[in-house]
Amino acid sequence: MSMNAVGGGPGPQGGAAFLLAQLGAHAAGRFAERIDGLDLTPAQAGLLRLVADTPGRSQRELADALGMPPSRFVPFADELEERGLIERRRNPRDRRLYALHLTEPGVTLLAELREAAAAHEQQICQALSPDEHRQLRTLLGRIAEQQGLTPGVHPGYRWIRPDRTHRPREPRPPEAPPTPDPNGSA
Question: What is the distance between the alpha carbons of residues 31 and 139, in angstroms, rounded to a whole number?
């Protein structure tokens, strides 16, 4: 790690943790912009990918995999179901549970999403050779494992609130201040 000769801390460009945070925020923002045309948030994109990779898992299992409380997961999944991208089916082994599956429109959208993700990966890592890209993935994977992160799952799912899973709504105009009573009463 580059060290600042005066203070012994990271150099003027910041340490590796700062660069990871800087690039992570930049990459996340660029990915959100890239998939905006698909009418998906990055969190929804991640759930579609997870359902496609592990079809038939229960809502509880998926919530656990994402690190989300089930009470937050259900409305999160509801949005994708309302859009016809996923469906809940009774679990044949335990009819109390619902298994999640992609629908045909979900499969189609996932294919477009994967194309967008590949283009995003290429754009973000274009300064690297293929060997450097593989090395970076290996090193970052090692750090993620050491930090106890679940492979392929963004840690931000823990903080998703049901009312914040889709696009931010237009800000409301400020409320007009109350009109003073001409008689002076409250």
Answer: 22
- Which has the closest alpha carbon to 48: 71, 25, 66, 70? 66
Strands (E), 37-170: 86-90, 98-102
Give the max Cα distance, the chain. Answer: 79
**Better pLDDT: 109 or 71:** 109
Report d(CA 96, CA 52) in Å as an integer: 22
What pLDDT is recorded for position 81? Answer: 96
Cβ-proximal residues to 143 (8 Å cutoff; 6+ apart), any chain: 20
Residue with tokens 């992609």: 102
Residue 37 is given by DSSP the state G
Cα 140 versus chain centre, distance: 18
The 8-class DSSP code of residue 156 comes to G
pLDDT digits (tens, 9 = 90+) for 3-40: 444 445 656 678 999 999 999 999 999 999 999 999 99
If you average pLDDT over each of 51-60, 67-76, 146-155, 163-172, which comes out highest?
A: 51-60
Helix, strand counts (H, E) of the chain = 6, 2
